[in-house]
Design brief:
With about 260 residues, the chain is mostly beta strands. The chain is about 5% helix and about 30% strand. It has helices at about 180-190, 250-260; strands at about 40, 50-55, 60-65, 70, 85-90, 100-110, 120-125, 155-160, 175-180, 200, 220, 225-230, 245. The chain has a six-stranded antiparallel beta barrel. A six-stranded antiparallel β-barrel has the order 2-3-4-7-6-5. A hairpin with a 2-residue loop joins strand 11 and strand 12 (about 225-230). The protein is globular, with a radius of gyration of 17 Å. The two termini are about 25 Å apart.
């Protein structure tokens, strides 16, 4: 089990230009508190693919993609033949209920770059095969390079920071956010080096709804397919800065090669 200690870079001034290798302001990395910003509580039966990745409590999300496989973010877990983490499936409460499942191994994408957050994917093989129920089952995956139309409504869910202390911090939340044009998102993040073809953006121009710290690795779903993995962004739900997700369709062939799915 290995972890990356990720450094969060703050934007000091609007005209500050960071070197291309130091441009990711906020990976949604281990944060034990909070939830989706501007969202709503959601029962696990509505998002049965959602899992909580755990080590002394929740730290990242993930998505069930097969009876023995989960997809999460590369910055959540690196490659390991004996990972110490577990996952909780089948519960909207990240502190109880559902089922705790051990991991057999973790396979981080070989091109993952911890500085640029490119290829931000890790596949988790479970130590045992799970039998699907109404509370936990696999989400459909897109085909290799399958596009997401601009403005498509997507559902993001997780146990990350809500920026609202009145929210129950243990209960799963979700938000509906539209996908954002690739060039517009690249321009929005130009001061940070822009985005790559392995990334997809979603959010509102005026902000208000977004994923946040603690949601990392969780699902972005559109039309019943897992199109993104919560990855990084500037702040949480900030105006002019949509959330940036790892684009699942860009590594579909790698997922199949590793998992057989």
């Amino acid at each position: 089990m290995f972890k990356f200690a990720l450094v969060i870079f703050a934007l000091v001034g609007a005209s500050l230009a960071l070197p291309n290798k130091l441009h990711r302001p906020r990976p949604w990395w281990k944060s034990g508190s909070g939830r989706i910003v501007g969202g709503f509580e959601i029962p696990i039966e509505d998002v049965p693919y959602q899992v909580s990745l755990r080590e002394f409590g929740h730290f990242c999300g993930g998505s069930i993609i097969g009876s023995q496989w989960v997809l999460t973010a590369g910055h959540c877990v690196s490659s390991s033949s004996s990972p110490g983490e577990t996952i909780r499936i089948g519960s909207a409460d990240n502190g109880q209920g559902g089922q705790i499942v051990k991991l057999k191994r973790a396979i981080q994408h070989p091109k993952y770059d911890s500085m640029t957050t490119d290829y931000d994917f890790t596949l988790l093989e479970l130590a045992e095969e799970i039998k699907f129920t109404e509370s936990y089952k696999a989400i459909e995956l897109p085909e290799q390079d399958e596009p997401v139309e601009d403005g498509s409504m997507c559902l993001v869910s997780g146990w990350g920071n809500t920026q609202n202390w009145s929210d129950n911090r243990r209960i799963l939340r979700a938000a509906n956010v539209p996908s954002v044009n690739q060039k517009e998102c690249d321009q929005a993040y130009s001061v940070y080096g822009g985005i790559t073809d392995r990334m997809i953006c979603a959010g509102y121009e005026k902000g208000g709804k977004d994923a946040c710290q603690g949601d990392s690795g969780g699902p972005l779903v559109s039309e019943g397919k897992l199109v993104g993995v919560v990855s990084w962004g500037k702040g949480c739900a900030e105006e002019g800065y949509p959330g940036v997700y790892s684009r699942v369709a860009s590594v579909r062939e790698w997922i199949k090669e590793v998992s057989g799915i």
